[in-house]
Amino acid sequence: MAKASPTVSAGMLLPARISIIVPCYNEAENVVPLVAALDAALEGERWEVIFVDDNSPDGTAERVSKVANNDPRVRVIKRVGRRGLSSAVIEGFLSSSAPYVAVMDGDLQHDETVLPKMLADLDAGSDIVVASRHVEGGDNAGLAGYWRHLLSDTGIRAAQSVLPHRLTDPMSGFFAMRRELFQAVLPKLSGTGFKILLDLAMSAPKSVKITEVPFVFRPRLAGESKLDVVVLLQFAMMILDKVTHGWLPSRFLAFALVGLVGVVVNVAVMQIARLGGMDFSQSQLVGTAVAILTNFLLNNRLTYHDRRLKGAKMWVGLIIFFAVCSLGAAANIGVARMVLHDVGHGHWDRASAAGAVVGVVWNYAVSSTLIWR
């Protein structure tokens, strides 16, 4: 394997023909091997690699900076206070001036030797070239465990049901495209979640030419996989956002679904409390408190995954969330009463629904503004 920090040559100082964007979090041990692998795979090609690091505590950005001191083809963007793979890729694309941009993971599971073939397809007229694990010659064996295979396969089937383009591997995080196409679809991108390829494919015109090349997904050597049920849920939310053309924002939908979970928790805790001897008012108070706590924790983990609060900020956020939800409950009741007497003509269901809508919109708007800003 070639050295990660080769002697600087005149060719390294020429404008890159392709920028490889590597979104990363806690991948310090993989930086040097990845740069060395790219150096070997793209020998004779004008390339650069841009690591977009979400302020990794393991010093990933510092490791990249150390390599960049000796190799002008290596750059790093360190994001502080921002999280998320899709938004990281978008920032990386925006920092590039190369005609072609590619995306690959920083964990060495993507086979860098496929990049020359992807470049050749772009030169031949393709707009997007996807490295697929599910065409002849590709393999998904590096995805560890039955659970991760199930998550990946479920996501693929869901994406294929709504995609305007035929793709065998819409869950792939390894692809290359023309930068001018990215600039054209940029205003349509949701920028949420972990699967930027689906966002791009659903935002691109039907006329774009997408081709696939096979690659073998390798086992991870260092670090931890980011694929879990949270990723799949965010993936589903993003699909809904694209299908509804932004009229149903994915974050609001997630917030509302978490609210429904809170209702179930509230009722369940109330019943348990009443069985324990509490009266209705006491049971309602305990159930509401547990539901609000549950909603806060789920929103912090799922709805606002990219803005997750930790430490002291989480406790401050919890206090504000309780206050916000209390005011939201008051607004809910007030609107429901108004609708019942002035508009609903005695229809409890309509009045209750109107109050619930106002309550969830209030909670979402204020939470997004004051807590998960």
UniProtKB/TrEMBL annotation:
SUPFAM superfamilies: Nucleotide-diphospho-sugar transferases (SSF53448). Keywords: Glycosyltransferase, Membrane, Transferase, Transmembrane, Transmembrane helix. GO terms for molecular function: dolichyl-phosphate beta-D-mannosyltransferase activity. GO terms for cellular component: membrane. GO terms for biological process: glycolipid biosynthetic process; polysaccharide biosynthetic process. It comes from the Bacteria. InterPro entries: DPM1-like, Glyco_trans_2-like, GtrA_DPMS_TM, Nucleotide-diphossugar_trans. The chain crosses the membrane at residues 252-273, 314-339, 351-372. Residues 19-185 form the Glycosyltransferase 2-like domain. It is a multi-pass membrane protein. Pfam families: Glycos_transf_2 (PF00535), GtrA_DPMS_TM (PF04138). It is found in: Membrane. CDD domains: DPM1_like (cd06442). Residues 255-372 form the GtrA/DPMS transmembrane domain. Belongs to the glycosyltransferase 2 family. This is Dolichol monophosphate mannose synthase. It comes from Gluconobacter cerinus.
